[in-house]
Amino acid sequence: MTTRIAIIGASGYTGGEALxxxxxxxRVEVVAATSREYAGKPVAAIHLNLRSVLGTxxxxxxxxxxxxxxxxLVFLSVPAGVSHTMARRLVEAGVRVxxxxxxxxxxxxxxxxxxxxxxxxxxxxxxxxxxxxPEIHRDEIRNARVVACPGCNATAAIxxxxxxxxxxxxxxxxxxxxxxxxxxxxxxxxxxGSHHPERANVIRPYExxxxxxxxxxxxxxxxxxxKRLQIAMVPHAVGNVRGALATxxxxxxxxxxxxTIWRAYARHYGKEPFIRIVRSGPVKYPDPKxxxxxxxxxxxxxxxLSRRRAALFAAIDNLMKGAAGQAVQCMNIMLGMDxxxxxxxxxxxxx
Amino acid sequence: MTTRIAIIGASGYTGGEALxxxxxxxRVEVVAATSREYAGKPVAAIHLNLRSVLGTxxxxxxxxxxxxxxxxLVFLSVPAGVSHTMARRLVEAGVRVxxxxxxxxxxxxxxxxxxxxxxxxxxxxxxxxxxxxPEIHRDEIRNARVVACPGCNATAAIxxxxxxxxxxxxxxxxxxxxxxxxxxxxxxxxxxGSHHPERANVIRPYExxxxxxxxxxxxxxxxxxxKRLQIAMVPHAVGNVRGALATxxxxxxxxxxxxTIWRAYARHYGKEPFIRIVRSGPVKYPDPKxxxxxxxxxxxxxxxLSRRRAALFAAIDNLMKGAAGQAVQCMNIMLGMDxxxxxxxxxxxxx
Amino acid sequence: MTTRIAIIGASGYTGGEALxxxxxxxRVEVVAATSREYAGKPVAAIHLNLRSVLGTxxxxxxxxxxxxxxxxLVFLSVPAGVSHTMARRLVEAGVRVxxxxxxxxxxxxxxxxxxxxxxxxxxxxxxxxxxxxPEIHRDEIRNARVVACPGCNATAAIxxxxxxxxxxxxxxxxxxxxxxxxxxxxxxxxxxGSHHPERANVIRPYExxxxxxxxxxxxxxxxxxxKRLQIAMVPHAVGNVRGALATxxxxxxxxxxxxTIWRAYARHYGKEPFIRIVRSGPVKYPDPKxxxxxxxxxxxxxxxLSRRRAALFAAIDNLMKGAAGQAVQCMNIMLGMDxxxxxxxxxxxxx
Amino acid sequence: MTTRIAIIGASGYTGGEALxxxxxxxRVEVVAATSREYAGKPVAAIHLNLRSVLGTxxxxxxxxxxxxxxxxLVFLSVPAGVSHTMARRLVEAGVRVxxxxxxxxxxxxxxxxxxxxxxxxxxxxxxxxxxxxPEIHRDEIRNARVVACPGCNATAAIxxxxxxxxxxxxxxxxxxxxxxxxxxxxxxxxxxGSHHPERANVIRPYExxxxxxxxxxxxxxxxxxxKRLQIAMVPHAVGNVRGALATxxxxxxxxxxxxTIWRAYARHYGKEPFIRIVRSGPVKYPDPKxxxxxxxxxxxxxxxLSRRRAALFAAIDNLMKGAAGQAVQCMNIMLGMDxxxxxxxxxxxxx
Lengths: 351, 351, 351, 351
Fold this sequence. Notes:
With 351 residues, chain A is α/β, with parallel strands linked by helices. Helix content of chain A is 32%, strand content 22%. At the A-D interface, strand 7, strand 8, strand 9, strand 10 and strand 12 of A face strand 7, strand 8, strand 9, strand 10 and strand 12 of D.
């Protein structure tokens, strides 16, 4: 008995990664993969890694009637501003939604105008949707009709900071999140900035003012510390294809010893199936290099008590724990399966 | 019921990849992982990708008594010149051997002096060992006591050429195999040449005279065409970490049409679980990029009938189909399992 | 006293590299840089490396009247099929032409239909134009009105093979040229294939049948050996941005000793200002890594007398000796300057 | 008339880069290049990019008598803890010193014990030495006997922050400097961490507690703002070979408008020959990609007045403005030459 899944917007990188993961998942079946641009073409003509894997599966046009009749759960892997017009049709037909776009991430509908430039068309459904970070919202995800998967930079930022905020360990007035991320984060559409000769070897700050993920990070961190906070956040494009590291530079709110901090992280993350706390070894801090191809998030930190400062790190594969892997993790929770089902692949190394 | 496996030499890249694969394999169990250099240290302190995965497994000293009492099959992941002194002890105790080193690849023991500079210590066992390329020696692998996994460059070279040679399609006097391979091929030991600033961005020919894999490639190709042949082979180090592409430049032995060539390849590889024939799409020829993390070998070719020449391509992940993946494939065959068991992971893309 | 230069098509990579080189050249002055796409925009808005360097220089529309009145020599850095319609207007006004496009490379005008798909519009001017490889055509370049700079892959292929062919050292029936080249070779226009996530880490054969540079390589090699020959040539895109290596796999025409071969290369290249013969050291063969940023071509080879085969290598920076650097070298010769003027920059390493 | 220069420790990356730059410099001559490890070997056998360039120059043993008799100025390109024992011998013989090591960077000799673990042997000479950042100490450099070139990460950090501190624009209690840097920064010695398969594709924090450059950055920034300050600083190794970017996350000390900030930077850097202020274009913020191969430092920033925060960026080539280029710039100042002499090479792009 498998659950029938459809992927709307399956030709991009998160859609392709979802296809790859679901094709290996023992308890689900992909019944449709839509793409406006590539409808009618074999999936494997676009996702070359999937050659010979999906038989003759072709991308289809989006036909909502067909999808609600065939699928039990849908992945929405579409650009910002699309999902909010689609989700109601699905949930009213009893189809649950895992949304990889930002349309259901922000609790306050007005923020969509400020950060994304569109008016949210379904504030009611937004009100019941759940932010799909299992480490924080696992129980709500279980029964949600719409789960909004976090952005990749947001996933890393929040996971790096969550225990520190929950336990009041840091000065919430001065949090600087510096993110470094690979090129796959920006999706499958070529541009001058993504052209290989221009994109290789960059260390390029982008959206240093007003990065959209700031909104969801502030929302979630504010919830965790019970106080409206603001952060400084600057993402940087680096030469990798995959991988994201968030370095949160923080000042300690009180004189702590390092053990207290470790204990806080161990308490919050000790039982998490996809979080690994890193504190020793030849590479002493988390590095996305060692999670590539897996759903792991490696967490670690550096503390200088003499300066009352710390750096909190979270390393992920941006297409896995930062996108499709987390979506499958949420799906597993929604379907009452073991959260790790179909996600047991170990990181590839070296790569 | 799982089969008990030991890995001798588990701290290198092929050993680490074997550990990763066997940890995900549903029907085997790793009972020992030896390392002279790291005995006593946690496996995850060396293979950082395996953090939290193998529990508290530590590298152990090599204790042959213990291994023959605990393991049913052993992976030998050791440098050239070591396995030939170890294998007999194992097989006499009824333990089967998958050797990832070159010690059992060459049928003629005298070739070890010429190519590897040591005198083979066990010509008798060599005589019964099998070259572990399932696409060519599947039936012999099934019951072999010692299977010698091919080198990564050799795997790509042979798979690119095999059907053409079997069917007499090309001039065997003029075969030039140009290989490009990533840095993981050279193993885990740092050197001046592998130092990142020196190794990044190279397009560096190496062993352009007397590359050791030439010996096994000539052996296997000669067997396939029934005639002693010699090849020209030059490997090139390129900037990748993983991936190998063999480009065999050949001249066609007769006026063929392209269909004949396709049919020959389809006939020989059509049912192979890990070979994919590539003939179209935005990337028209095989590229290791699209097999990374999997055991696939992508095969393709370009034909210029007007010049009576062709280029035959084979693309692999050098640590998977070129090493540990192929070793697991051989193990599955030896143990009578489905050949794909534990090897169903799809290539990661983009990466 | 400086010579006035115009660059037509200055927004691409070869145009940008020409701008960079000419801006550092002590005896020339760039008086115009045209670009249809970016006319009116500051040059430094496109070529970010040239920020603050060229003052307020802007790209201009192509105005042939203005160019012939202002410039003494013109670089044509335009796509195939454009120069042949422009060059006459320039030379008739007494303006000399260094063409970086393929329009004046092939002696036989009919070949343009076969290889490039257009009918050459000026066979007469073609007849007097000179193939701009100074190591072979230095004397003709001196007084040429139109010099056609070779393609980057062709430059490497020809320089690797020239002495061997001139001296009849190899079997001309079986020459396989395997080229590996970085992404800047394909120019500044984004595409799906050049999108960073798709282009990074590739080892991707392209144009394996009918690569356009084959035509000019065969032309020049045939001239050198005095016999119409054909080659097998396959370029491969690799992950670098810059750099090209040609590996020519050849069979020796006679039993030679290695010294004879070295002597042939030393004789032909010993006085060449931009050719370095590589025969020892930690990196024993040429690698483009060590010529990046310079106009050098490193030449070397591997010989296996027992197999009567050799590999001949040439390594270049594809935008320097493979394009703009060679164009400046030709310009220097045409203007009667020291050939090295403005080209004395040493390779950057490590990079 | 050229000035005679010796390089002590010329086999490493900064030494090699100094050799390359001095070989192209029109007004100096390298009379000795020492190396303990490679004494007697041709320089070009180690620095492969310099093949054919330096004639037959060989590395020599360090012979202080010979150096003081032959050289007028010496570059010390040695590990920490060596220069402080050598410099006096040189200056007393009238030889001026450009030290690329940290031994003369910190004004307070006691800091060497704390940060470097050795007792400074020459506090007197330390007292007169000058921190070799021309943008801050140009006048003192002119007549200094010992100039201590800054570390690469320190150069970027200080140049990003200097105008903001000088003009009191930011909260000096909360400065977080996040640095990303390529592998050449760590020098020429291979290690497990620099082994290509392990070092490629990293986003690896290192020395996140107690990075040694913190000492010099705090020293210089404290001088600029007239107040003892402390910073949070975390360097990250990224996959590049060359390039460093410092991102300083700061909070604005007062409600400023963006123009005030631009003016401060323009005022301090407007006439600097090697600083370029970046504020627009397709890549809006500084990226080391566009300074590679040059001595430029690109400076820029992002301001969010609503959050009273800013990010200040500085991008350099770590071996040029971050090491040997800056050393040559200091040398030029010391010798009364044009500061740009021999440093007019433009950034290579794309690379």
